[in-house]
Write a structure and sequence with these properties.
9 helices, about 220 residues, globular, mainly alpha
Length: about 220
């Protein structure tokens, strides 16, 4: 149906994969908590664009190429792991700065943000999405299994629309939930520093996971 093989199994797997914590969802939640709903959706848009690129590459056969070429896959995964590590170091450095200045308060305190002051959520989320280990493995090892050979174009479009719909619903929930944390982060530097530290450690974990990934 619609070029898809075993749609119920795909939907069940999709829900589980979307709900598993990953760098995409963590980054969107972080941006929403620090900068509000509008910035959260800017980051989410970067994720959706990145996922669309990965889906398109998968449909074009790049997923099969990566799966069959250990050297190429290694280059992709180590480059991605390096980028995630760079983000993690930036978050940890920002958190350390917050810990050192946590007693300093001014009348115009703004939410502390990990990373540079001119952070661009869309661009950063786009890159995070493109190097996301969960997304890469999903489109290489899972996504393509459910495309019917009799109608692959419709199959890829159907699976892609369903994946994006699940992502929109999930990231929207994170954005509105995260925006509620913004006020608490503004009031309490220690809370903000702790959350930023935790995010940095998790991103290091994602980098390690990607570097150890295999297909």
């Amino acid at each position: 149906m619609f070029g898809v093989i075993d749609l119920p199994t795909y939907l069940a797997g999709l829900v589980l994969i979307v709900l598993l914590p990953g760098p995409n969802s963590l980054y969107v939640l972080s941006v929403a908590a620090r900068r509000g709903v509008r910035a959260g959706y800017s980051a989410a848009a970067g994720v959706w664009c990145g996922d669309t690129v990965l889906m398109t590459l998968s449909a074009a056969g790049v997923a099969s190429l990566l799966k069959g070429n250990a050297l190429l896959f290694g280059i992709v995964k180590y480059a991605g792991a390096g980028y995630l590590t760079w983000l993690a170091i930036g978050m940890l450095r920002a958190a350390w700065g917050m810990w050192r200045t946590r007693r300093e308060r001014t009348a115009q305190d703004a939410p502390a943000t990990p990373g540079p002051a001119d952070e661009r959520p869309f661009r950063r989320a786009l890159v995070v999405s493109l190097v996301n280990p969960k997304a890469i493995l999903f489109f290489i090892a899972f996504f393509v299994q459910f495309v019917s050979e009799s109608n692959p174009v419709i199959g890829f479009v159907t699976l892609g629309v369903l994946a994006q719909l699940a992502s929109v619903l999930y990231l929207s929930a994170l954005i509105f939930g995260g925006s509620r944390l913004a006020a608490a982060f503004r009031r309490r530097r220690r809370l903000s520093a702790g959350a930023t530290s935790a995010a940095g450690v998790l991103f290091l974990g994602f980098a390690v996971k990607l570097s150890l990934a295999s297909v």
